[in-house]
Recover the amino acids of this structure.
């Protein structure tokens, strides 16, 4: 499968724990995006990378959130000290410059 | 500010019926793109179409067609002869020139249920 891959698909954690999600984009895509989707809502932009550079971060991305793309390939999204309000689907997408975004199947986070 | 409104929360139809999903957008940019994505139960957003603001031609792809009208800021999506496999949540989205087209602003989605 050469699409966008996200792991884990589902994570259940207790409030206060740290979690990390990984995204492997389509190999020739230099842009990578993170979105968050809560129940009954459309996805909301969090951040994006061009190669290894993080070019924009949404105000939704609090200090507890950090995203990296160290070698310009895969990316990780870490949430520290999780809160119940962090429960959502975290979607990763990739694209070539100027091209359409291709989304992964998402990582669903449940914070108890 | 940019905004996408999908007023229909859920639509139920019987197979073979035609169905139209509405999308109304707001933007201050004169250059923008509009999109439709399909989200089946698996969760993955599947790209359906991208339309730039200078191209108001309607488009047809198989059973799918799109009607873009700048005068009413609408980008509606019609499925002809719906099938059970069309059941999904459909999102309309907007990206604008002033963001370098890097951010998609999504509507809240319309859940389509097609019964046999």
């Amino acid at each position: 499968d050469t699409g966008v891959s996200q792991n884990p698909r589902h994570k259940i954690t207790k409030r206060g724990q740290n979690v990390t999600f990984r995204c492997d984009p389509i190999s020739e895509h230099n842009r990578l995006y993170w979105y968050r989707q809560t129940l009954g809502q459309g996805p909301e932009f969090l951040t994006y990378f061009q190669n290894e550079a993080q070019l924009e971060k949404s105000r939704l991305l609090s200090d507890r959130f950090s995203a990296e793309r160290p070698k310009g390939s895969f990316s990780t999204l870490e949430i520290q000290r999780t809160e119940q309000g962090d429960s959502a689907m975290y979607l990763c997408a990739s694209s070539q410059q100027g091209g359409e975004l291709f989304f992964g199947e998402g990582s669903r986070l449940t914070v108890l | 500010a940019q905004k996408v409104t999908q007023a229909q929360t859920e639509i139920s139809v019987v197979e073979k019926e035609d169905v139209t999903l509405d999308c109304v957008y707001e933007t201050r940019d004169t250059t923008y793109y509009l999109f439709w994505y399909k989200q089946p139960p698996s969760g993955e957003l599947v790209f359906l179409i991208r339309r730039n603001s200078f191209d108001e031609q309607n488009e047809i792809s198989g059973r799918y067609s799109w009607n873009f009208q700048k005068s009413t800021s609408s980008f509606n999506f019609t499925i002809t002869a719906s099938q059970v496999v069309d059941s999904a949540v459909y999102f309309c989205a907007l990206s604008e020139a002033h963001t370098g087209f890097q951010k998609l602003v999504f509507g809240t989605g319309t859940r389509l249920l097609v019964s046999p």
Observations:
- DSSP finds no helices and twelve strands in chain B.
- Residues 11 and 112 of chain B are 5 Å apart (CA to CA).
- The interface with chain A takes residues 4, 35, 37, 42-47, 50, 91, 93, 101-109 of chain B (CB under 8 Å).
- Chain B has a mean pLDDT of 93.
